[in-house]
Amino acid sequence: MSTSRTIRLIAPSGYCQNQPAAELALERLSRTHRVENTSVIRRRSQRFAGTDAERLGDINELASLTDLPDIVLAVRGGYGASRLLTDIDYRGLRERFSHQPPLLCGHSDFTALQLALLAKSELVTFSGPMLAGNFGAKTLSDFTDTHFWGLLSQPEYRLDWQDSRDCSGRWQGQLWGGNLAMICSLIGSPWLPKINRGILVIEDINESPFRVERMLLQLHHAGILAQQQAVITGSFTHGEPNDYDNGYQLDTVWEYLEQKTGIPFINHLDFGHNADTVTLPIGAQATLIAQQKQRQLQLSSYPYLQS
How do strand 103-106 and strand 228-237 relate by DSSP bridges? Predict the structure, then answer.
């Protein structure tokens, strides 16, 4: 990697409890990149990574920076981005990023910000690794690292994986989504993009199968699922069924929703809160292909690191 690349940190959500992980991530990333705005790692106000004004400033000041960074990387998720949505400078960001936007990357709570930027500024951002949890892991995942830099460095990218059941089909549309709980939190608000004939990708953490089903039914009842061509499910970390579920599990949820909506659920993409996660451009164009148990996702029309 070229040392001329700049990564700017933002912390729109929770305080970074794991400071050693963040420092390890800084050490790793600084070997090949300039990392700036590192003071946000230690900033704290109650459970948040600073006051609302400070965290909002991380985002809005991107619209007025003389030199834009190449990558904008969230420190961590947690909670807090939702507080900021009404005051983000959507017009300023859209205008400043119109030529060569920096690549905004994060996941989990960051989904709220990503979907708002897509809805109000038409900006494509990246659902992928964050500073502390991913780049600061004791053992950095080669899978995550390879897919992150691979996608961000190319104008087109392809993902291949295996599903657990036979299915055949081909769907093309705008890729959107992220953390399921955050998507549902935006229903009825101006921050949820209206995607017609899209491909929805979802993931979550600490949500039991029945809670996942309830959130998907909320999307169904709101008429949002009916506007999609397909749903891709990623990792649902720490969401294992318990004894009371009596065989009711995530596969049950996917099958139930597929039968109820008529929309195919394409499963088992390594995407979400696990150590191994792909990076996805939220708002990009995608072609999803299923052949028996083989799955392929072709991605294009997103910003990338120009040489």
Answer: unpaired
Q: Is 203 a catalytic residue?
A: yes
What CA–CA distance (Å, rounded) separates 106 from 89?
19
Active-site annotation holds for 64: no
The tokens describing 20, both together, are: 């050693």
Around 295, how many Cα atoms within 13 Å sit in the side-chain half-sphere? 24
Q: What is the pLDDT of residue 306?
A: 86
> Taking 50 as the threshold, does the pLDDT of residue 156 lie above it?
yes
Supply the pLDDT for residue 1. Answer: 43
Q: Which residues contact 74 (CB under 8 A, 6 or more apart)?
A: 9, 10, 11, 12, 13, 105, 106, 107, 110, 130, 131
* 202 three-state secondary structure: strand
Burial track 108-122 (b if 16+ CB lie within 10 A, e otherwise): bbbbbbbbbbbbbbe
Residue 56, token pair as written in the block? 């909002």
- Within 10 angstroms of residue 62's Cβ, the number of other Cβ atoms is 21
d(CA 126, CA 148): 9
Catalytic residue among 13, 82, 108, 208: 108
Query: Cα dihedral angle (172, 176, 180, 182), rounded to 10 degrees?
Result: -160
Q: Which residue has the higher pLDDT, 272 or 99?
A: 272
Q: Which of 33, 185, 203, 235 is catalytic?
A: 203
